[in-house]
Amino acid sequence: MKVDIIMGTRPGIVKMSSVYHAFVQDNYFETNIVYTGQHYSATLKDNIWEAFDLPTPRMQVEGIKDTNSHAEQIAAMMVGCERAFISGKTELVLVCGDANTNLAAGLAARKLDLKLGHVESGLRSRDWRMPEEHNRVILDHISDYLFSPTANTTENLNQENVQGLIYECGNSVVDALFYAREKIKQKSVDLVSSDYVLFTAHRQENVDQLKTLSNLVDILNQTAEILPVKFPMHPRTLKMLRQHNLLQKIEDVKNISILPPLPYLELIQLIENSRCVMTDSGGLQEESCILGIPCLTLRDNTERPETVSVGANTIVGTEVSNVMQNLKRLLSINIRESWSNPFGNGQTGKLIKEFLVNSL
Questions:
Q1: Beta bridge partners of residue 295, listed in sequence order
Q2: What is the pTM of this model?
Q3: CA nearest 29: which of 131, 117, 125, 109?
C-alpha cells in the first residue's frame, strides 16, 4: 500500500518522525514524505530532518511563502498535495495535528477518496478564536482513522460522534523525545543545569493583538527581574514586535537572552535544564510535562488538559499580575518531575502502523 506521510511544520516533522520510521520498516507499505512547506523559514525547518534521520521528501509544495492569508495558504497546499497524491498513486494519507498543512492535505485526500488517518486527534481547546481549533475539528470529522493520544481526547471524539475508527495509542511526541535524548547522549553534550526561565510566544491570538503583545513584553521584563530569561523568538513574534515598536523594550534588558528559533535538540536541552517554561505553545506544554519541567501556559485554555490534571501545567492567561503571581508561587516550591507522563510510553508510531496493518 502506498502511503504519504504529511509534514509541513516543525512540530509536525517531530511528531511524524516515529510514524515514518515505523512504516518504512514494514514491507506492507511503500512509504514517502510529502512536505507542504508551511514552515518555509530555514530557522524553523533546517537541521530537523537530520536530527530525526529523515530522507528528502518525495515532493515539496512550492510557493507557500508567497501566500498572504489562511485561505491562500490552505488552497496552495491543497493543490500541491492533490498533485502529489495523484502522481504518486497514493492510497493512504497520514496527517498530524492542527496546522493548516494538515487540513489542506486532509481535504485533498478526502476529495480524491483516499484513506485518511489523523494522528493526534481529539484535542479541543473550545476556543473558536484559534485557527487550529477549526482545523482539528474539521479533520476529525473527515478522517477514516483517528489516532487519539489520551482517554480525554478519545472521550471528545466519542461525544462528537465522529465517523472514523478511533484508536487510543499515546502521543508520538513521546517517541520523538526519546529519540532526541538518545541523539543528545550520542553527541556527548554536557548538560549543566542553569537557573533560568524558558519563554516562548507565537500564537496568533497572542502576538497579533497589541494589548496582549504589550502584556507579554511586561511579563518578560518582570520575569527577568527574578531570573534570567531565554527567549527563542518565532519569526511571527519578531515581526509583530517590530511592527509595534516593542522589540527594543526587551532587547535592552540585560537578563533577557533573545535567541533565534533553535534546532530541536538544543530546544530540548533548554527545556530540560530550565527552572520552568512559560509558553503559549501546545507542543512545549507536552514536552515540558514529559521532561518533568513545570509549565505556565500563557493562554486562557489548553487542548492539552492532561498536563494540567497531572500537575505539570498551570493555565495563567496573559494578564501580567496573574502570570507573575503564579510564577512566584511556582518558583517558591519544588515540583519538578513530581507527576507521571500522561502521553504514553514512546511506542505510538509502532502502534499506529500495527493498527493499520490489521485494519486496511
A1: 277, 313
A2: 0.91
A3: 117
Which pairing describes strands 59-60 and 30-35: parallel, antiparallel, or unpaired? parallel
Determine the Cα–Cα distance for residues 15 and 11; give it in Å rounded to an integer.
Answer: 6
Helix, strand, or coil (residue 154): helix
How far apart are the C-alpha atoms of 131 and 111, rounded to whole Å? 22
CATH code matching the domain that covers 197-332, chosen among 3.90.1150.10, 3.30.750.24, 3.30.70.330, 3.40.50.2000: 3.40.50.2000
Any idea what the Cα angle at residue 55 is, between residues 50 and 56, rounded to 5°?
105
Yes or no: say if 109 and 135 are a contact pair by the CB < 8 Å rule: no
What does the buried/exposed string (b/e) look like for 277-292 if buried means 16 or more CB atoms within 10 Å of the residue's CB?
Answer: bbbbbbbbbbbbbbbe
> Per residue in 316-353, pLDDT tens?
999 999 999 999 999 998 777 789 999 999 999 999 99
Distance (Å, whole) CA 6 – CA 140 = 16
At position 209, the amino acid (one-letter code) is Q
Q: Which residues are catalytic?
A: 202
